[in-house]
Specification:
By secondary structure, the chain is α+β, with helices and mostly antiparallel strands. The protein has a domain of 146 residues. It has 3 helices and 11 strands. The strands form 2 sheets. The chain has a 7-stranded antiparallel sheet with strand order 1-2-3-4-5-6-7, sandwiched between helices. The chain has a 4-stranded mixed sheet with strand order 10-9-8-11, with helices on one face. Strand 5 and strand 6 form a beta hairpin. The longest helix has 27 residues.
Length: 233
């Protein structure tokens, strides 16, 4: 199944898949699977943890006999905790996924994310139990005290089950002046998920789909319907 996505929010990957940047995460989209996983920048902290553990091990190996006993115990415990934590977090940042929508399996899966890695299933939703997808926005309503809107818009894509349970797929916070981009990214992922699951996307009140010229960024005028002749045959 070929999924059409707007080019101005999509990054083409070398492996042929496409990705849409979200909030500290990204949606990696192929024709039969969508993975919502941590952004590439999340590998920084695990690498720092590994570097600190290597430094602590080097210090114990080179100056172990000259260090106080309490410091050696502390460094050893630090290494025992930091090494597995950093390694699993690094693997999770590279190959793990928080949510997987798989057309071949016919289900959407939310992973547990233990120690930063998608291990085990927290929620499994077959496609036939999905009622609809919903895009929500926070921060666009005036404050009841000052009658002013927030300077930040929080977009969210939520999967709503037929039972009424709501599960968050993605979040996109943007400045108020960039809310159109936030909606485009959220809706791009929503349309991709809807294409795989066969569900519909519900937009917030006051929003409507408008065709945009990607070259200029301006809305494309709607074509006027041709006037039908009422002449008798």
């Amino acid at each position: 199944m070929s999924i059409e996505l707007p080019g101005h929010v999509v990054i083409q990957r070398r492996d042929g898949r496409r990705e849409v940047l979200l909030h500290r995460s990204m949606a990696v989209i192929s024709d039969d699977k969508i993975e919502i996983k941590s952004a590439r920048g999340t590998v920084v902290l695990p690498l720092i943890g590994l570097a600190l553990a290597v430094g602590a091990g080097t210090l114990m190996a080179s100056r172990g006999t000259g260090l106080p006993f309490w410091l050696l115990v502390g460094l050893l415990l630090f290494c025992l905790f930091m090494v597995p934590f950093s390694v699993m977090s690094l693997i999770g940042s590279i190959v793990g996924a928080d949510v997987v929508i798989d057309a071949k399996k016919g289900s959407a899966t939310w992973q547990q994310g233990y120690l930063g890695m998608g291990i085990g299933t927290r929620e499994l939703v077959p496609f036939h139990k999905i009622d609809h997808l919903e895009v929500t926005i926070e921060g666009d309503q005036p404050d009841r005290w000052r009658e002013e809107t927030d300077s930040l818009r929080q977009f969210a894509l939520t999967l709503v089950k037929k039972s009424g349970k709501r599960l968050t797929l993605a979040q996109v916070p943007v400045p108020a002046y960039g809310q159109a981009d936030g909606m485009d990214r959220t809706l791009a992922v929503g349309n991709a998920v809807a294409a795989l699951t066969g569900s519909a996307v519900v937009l917030p009140e006051g929003w409507e789909l408008v065709e945009i010229d990607t070259a200029t960024g301006d809305p494309v005028p709607a074509k006027k319907p041709k006037r039908r002749s009422s002449r008798p045959a």
